[in-house]
């Protein structure tokens, strides 16, 4: 009887913790679907930008912002903030420059084929990054000249002070086909 109780407790604990273990594994495109639950029908799937905060302790960011087009809002945007896959808050952000720069347009969903996890893998496989200890990243899904692009920024451990990070630049990845559009890496910053 005691053995069955322990097995039941172990299974119940595993089932309770499984969503927490998976929560940090949400990709940006999965968060679009999750964010649809918190915006009006007029905004569902009408994404204008996705961005993360700088990751902490791991390479994959946990804090994400999904910005949807909202025709009923004053500044035409509604933003859902996620932490480890859970909704943290919904706001109508100040996006004053975006109408001027064109960043207020809805991203073409047919060209959103490369998700954040894949973009991160492609970016970190760049030859200039191979000998570095990558410590953190930050991602943005933006409008590019030829369609949506992922901007992936990296930080790596400094050589003289390995507990400190150095900004080593960005890699731009096409969200349509995963090709590297542009790189601006400076691995010598770790010196």
Please, could you describe this protein's structure?
The chain has 191 residues and is α+β, with helices and mostly antiparallel strands. The chain has one domain (27-190). It has four helices and eight strands. The chain has helices at residues 2-23, 28-35, 98-101, 116-124; strands at residues 47-52, 63-69, 77-83, 86-91, 134-144, 147-157, 165-174, 180-185. The chain has an eight-stranded antiparallel sheet with strand order 4-3-2-1-5-6-7-8, with helices on one face. The longest helix is centred in the N-terminal third of the chain and has 22 residues, at 2-23. The relative contact order is 0.14. The model is unreliable at 7-23 (pLDDT under 50).
| Structural class category | alpha+beta
Task: Assess the beta-strand content as a share of residues.
Answer: 25-35%
Largest sheet, in brief, is: 8 strands, antiparallel
Helix content: 10-25%
pLDDT < 50 stretches: 7-23
For this entry, give a set of tags.
191 residues, alpha+beta, 8-stranded antiparallel beta sheet, 8 strands, globular
Brief summary:
It is built from 4 helices and 8 strands, in the order H-H-E-E-E-E-H-H-E-E-E-E.
């Amino acid at each position: 009887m005691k053995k069955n109780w322990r097995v039941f407790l172990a299974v119940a604990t595993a089932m309770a913790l499984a969503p927490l273990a998976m929560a940090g594994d949400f990709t940006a495109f999965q968060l679009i679907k999750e964010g649809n639950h918190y915006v009006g029908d007029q905004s569902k799937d009408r994404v204008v930008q996705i961005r993360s905060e700088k990751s902490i302790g791991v390479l994959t960011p946990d804090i994400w912002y999904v910005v949807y087009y909202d025709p009923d809002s004053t500044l035409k945007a509604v933003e859902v903030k996620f932490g480890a896959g859970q909704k943290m808050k919904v706001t109508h952000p100040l996006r004053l420059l975006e109408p001027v720069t064109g960043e207020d347009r809805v991203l073409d969903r047919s060209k959103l084929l490369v998700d954040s996890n894949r973009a991160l893998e492609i970016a970190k496989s760049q030859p200039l990054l191979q000998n570095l200890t990558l410590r953190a990243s930050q991602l943005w899904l933006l409008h590019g000249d030829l369609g949506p692009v992922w901007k992936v920024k990296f930080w790596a451990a400094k050589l003289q002070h390995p507990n400190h990070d150095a900004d080593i630049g960005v890699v731009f990845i096409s969200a349509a086909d995963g090709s590297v559009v542009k790189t601006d890496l400076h691995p010598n910053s770790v010196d």
